[in-house]
Amino acid sequence: MILIHVCCGPCLLYPLSWFKEKGIEVLGYFYNPNIHPYREFKVRVKALEQVETLKGIKIIWDKTYGLRFFVKETFMVCENPEKRCERCYVIRLRQTVKKALELKAEAFTTTLLYSIYQKHNLIKEIAEDLSHKYRIPFFYEDFRKGYKLGQEEAITLELYRQSYCGCIFSEEERYSKALIKELKRKNK
Ligand code: SF4
C-alpha cells in the first residue's frame, strides 16, 4: 500500500484513477495545517469527504485546524513564497512520512504533484530528501499530465474548487492581484 498525502478533493481525482488503472492500492492522508481561514478549511474537508464517499477511498484524517501552528512555523519567511512554500511542503511531507512509517506503508507520495500551480521540482526534491532520511521509498509520478482530466471530473462532480493555494498569505496574493487587475480594467 502507498500512502498518498492529499491536499484537497479535486487534486486527488486524477492520481486516484491513475493508481486504480495500475492496480496499486493507495490510502489517503489528509494533513494540511496550511489551509486558512477556518471556513475555507471546513469547505475543503467537506469536498474531500465527498470524494471519499464517491470513490470509496479510505482516508486517514487530521482535521485539526492548524492556523496558529502554521503561522508560527512560517512567520519569519511569510513574505518570501520560495522559503514559505518550502517550509510548508516540509511540514506536510515530513508528517506524511511519519504516518507512512507508522502504518508500514511501502511508499509515500502526494497529490501536490498533480497541481500545475505548485513548485513541482521543489516538492520532488523535498520528498526525495525525506525518503533518504527516513528510509522509506518516495513514489514519484508527474501527475500534472492529468491536470485537465482531473479538473473536468471535479466540475462534473460539482466539487468545490478553491481559487487560492491555501495559506492566508496565498489568499492575499491571489485576491490583491485580482483587485489590482480589476482596478486597472476599470481605469482603462
Ligand atoms: S502558498 Fe501554498 S504551498 Fe506556499 S505556503 Fe501557502 S499554502 Fe503552502
Automatic annotation (TrEMBL):
<keyword id="KW-1015">Disulfide bond</keyword>
<dbReference type="Pfam" id="PF02677">
    <property type="entry name" value="QueH"/>
</dbReference>
<dbReference type="GO" id="GO:0046872">
    <property type="term" value="F:metal ion binding"/>
</dbReference>
<comment type="pathway">
    <text>tRNA modification; tRNA-queuosine biosynthesis.</text>
</comment>
<keyword id="KW-0819">tRNA processing</keyword>
<feature type="binding site">
    <location>
        <position position="88"/>
    </location>
    <ligand>
        <name>[4Fe-4S] cluster</name>
    </ligand>
</feature>
<keyword id="KW-0671">Queuosine biosynthesis</keyword>
<keyword id="KW-0676">Redox-active center</keyword>
<dbReference type="GO" id="GO:0008616">
    <property type="term" value="P:tRNA queuosine(34) biosynthetic process"/>
</dbReference>
<dbReference type="GO" id="GO:0052693">
    <property type="term" value="F:epoxyqueuosine reductase activity"/>
</dbReference>
<feature type="disulfide bond" description="Redox-active">
    <location>
        <begin position="165"/>
        <end position="167"/>
    </location>
</feature>
<comment type="function">
    <text>Catalyzes the conversion of epoxyqueuosine (oQ) to queuosine (Q), which is a hypermodified base found in the wobble positions of tRNA(Asp), tRNA(Asn), tRNA(His) and tRNA(Tyr).</text>
</comment>
<keyword id="KW-0411">Iron-sulfur</keyword>
<feature type="binding site">
    <location>
        <position position="85"/>
    </location>
    <ligand>
        <name>[4Fe-4S] cluster</name>
    </ligand>
</feature>
<keyword id="KW-0408">Iron</keyword>
<keyword id="KW-0560">Oxidoreductase</keyword>
<protein>
    <recommendedName>
        <fullName>Epoxyqueuosine reductase QueH</fullName>
        <ecNumber>1.17.99.6</ecNumber>
    </recommendedName>
</protein>
<comment type="similarity">
    <text>Belongs to the QueH family.</text>
</comment>
<feature type="binding site">
    <location>
        <position position="7"/>
    </location>
    <ligand>
        <name>[4Fe-4S] cluster</name>
    </ligand>
</feature>
<keyword id="KW-0479">Metal-binding</keyword>
<dbReference type="GO" id="GO:0051539">
    <property type="term" value="F:4 iron, 4 sulfur cluster binding"/>
</dbReference>
<dbReference type="InterPro" id="IPR003828">
    <property type="entry name" value="QueH"/>
</dbReference>
<keyword id="KW-0004">4Fe-4S</keyword>
<feature type="binding site">
    <location>
        <position position="8"/>
    </location>
    <ligand>
        <name>[4Fe-4S] cluster</name>
    </ligand>
</feature>
